[in-house]
Amino acid sequence: MPHSSSDEARSLATEDAVADIVSPVLSEHHAELIDVLFRREDGQRVIEICVDDDSELGPSLETIVELSEILSQELDKHDKDSAPYLLQVTSPGLGRPLTRFRQWQRNRGSLVTIEKTDGASLQGRIGTVSDDAVVIVTAPPVKKGQRINPKRIAVHTVPFATITVAMIDFEFSEPSDVDWEIAMDDEKLAALTHQEGK
């Protein structure tokens, strides 16, 4: 049965509906939907679509521009008679929770704050990422200019199933201390993880 114009307009009424429309289109172009967000900006309706791909650093600006044009055309097919909207296509970054395996891998060494299902929180650097868990490297706070004592470094294996939200913490300078060095070293992490398990 053909859809009426009112049916097409209602098809963009919810974030889930937009996700259903754009997900297969993104898959055809080797990209993945992270989430859809509706908001208003200066009184205008905004549909924000966050996408990711398999590239090492995430979608390039060129890719974002290309996907914006493709998704705009696709959404227009379903939104001919509804209110105007502004489409914004973005990629995962600071301020957006880590929700995909590739995001964890891509941010290895970064400082992250994790909220867990038991109400506890944990801040540390992302280490080894496996299918079902992530290793977090923690270190005690030190004064500016002081180096972290390697003996006070700890590792925590955190199952993804116990994480409610995880956010990358902004750092004003490039990390260069021992906690970052350990987070990026598979052998050192494996040794510390083995000690943790004893």
UniProtKB/TrEMBL annotation:
GO cellular component: cytosol
Keywords tagged on the record: Cytoplasm, Ribosome biogenesis
A GO biological-process term: ribosomal small subunit assembly
Pfam families linked: RimP_N
Subcellular localization, as worded in the UniProt entry: Cytoplasm
InterPro entries hit by this protein: Ribosome_maturation_RimP (IPR003728), RimP_N (IPR028989), RimP_N_sf (IPR035956)
Residue ranges annotated for the Ribosome maturation factor RimP N-terminal domain, each copy included: 21-94
Protein's job: Required for maturation of 30S ribosomal subunits.
Family label: Belongs to the RimP family.
HAMAP family associated with the record: RimP
Name of the featured protein: Ribosome maturation factor RimP
Organism: Lawsonella clevelandensis
